[in-house]
Write a structure and sequence with these properties.
- The chain is α/β, with parallel strands linked by helices.
- The chain has one domain: Vaccinia Virus protein VP39 (Rossmann fold, 3-Layer(aba) Sandwich), CATH 3.40.50.150.
- Helix content is 40%, strand content 22%.
- The chain contains 8 helices and 7 strands; from the N terminus they run αααβαβαββαβααββ.
- The protein has a 7-stranded mixed β-sheet with strand order 3-2-1-4-5-7-6, sandwiched between helices.
- α2 packs across α5.
- The protein is globular.
- It binds S-adenosylmethionine.
- The site of S-adenosylmethionine (SAM) has 16 residues, from α1.
């Protein structure tokens, strides 16, 4: 793998992987439970922090798995992803919706002006990134957002689900676990954004959390 590359960047750039993503990941009993937990956590956070209507960048949007939650808040969604194949699957589901559009983009260097979107959501990306790329991606996410960001991070924490996954489930892409303190320190160094909250997804999935950031 070339330097700075990581598996999740190329893994999903495949028609076969993209077409099987929803079914393969979220159709088993534990996949459905994970999807429900992630959707409910996003719904709760969106109710609290996306109070006014506005524009939102969901990156990476993948197959548009979390669009129903965002559409129910009346938001205008731009789905961004590096994989044209994942976007194609999302487009089949949401292409006709006038509140949804898509852009093939690299989160490491977003092709948008500063403060383009009111809000930003990101699920299941940060945990796949090497530390330097993760910082670059976070900078880009903050740069293009005007108000609130809801970002899914995976923190070092021995939760029941983490143990279950490590023993019984094949991880497609390696997951890097961060310490909440490391992230808080990274945010503290910035003058343009504040850490509002870190919300664990559930009692059994305590390593996965939503990090809420507010642009100053
Ligand atoms: C595990 S999927 C998550 C998709 C969606 N957020 C979800 O939760 O279902 C990871 C996604 O990250 C995308 N991805 C990886 N690196 C990226 C990058 N640098 N810029 C944009 N998307 C990227 C992949 O193409 C893939 O769609």
């Amino acid at each position: 793998m070339e330097q700075g590359a990581y598996k999740a960047k190329s893994h999903y750039q495949s028609a076969e992987i993209a077409s099987e993503y929803d079914d393969e990941r979220f159709n088993s009993w534990h996949g459905r439970a994970a999807h429900r937990t992630e959707s409910e956590a996003l719904e709760t956070a969106a109710k609290l922090y996306f109070r006014e209507p506005g524009t939102l960048l969901d990156i990476p949007c993948g197959t548009g798995r979390l669009f129903p939650v965002l559409l129910s808040r009346g938001l205008k969604i731009t789905g961004g992803d590096i994989s044209a194949q994942m976007i194609e699957v999302a487009q089949k589901k949401y292409g006709a919706n006038q509140h949804v559009n898509f852009r093939q983009v690299n989160a490491e260097k977003l092709d948008f002006e500063d403060n383009t979107f009111d809000y930003l959501t990101s699920y299941r990306l940060m945990c796949h990134l090497p530390p330097e790329i993760e910082k670059r991606v976070l900078n880009e996410m903050i740069r293009v957002t005007k108000k609130i960001l809801i970002i899914n991070y995976h923190f070092a924490c021995l939760s029941p689900l983490y143990l279950f996954n490590s023993i019984f489930r094949k991880q497609f892409c390696p997951v890097r676990l961060l310490k909440p303190k490391e992230l808080a320190e990274q945010i503290k160094l910035r003058s343009d954004v504040e850490l509002v909250a870190i919300k664990k997804l559930s009692w059994y999935e305590r390593s996965s959390a939503l990090v809420i950031l507010r642009k100053k």
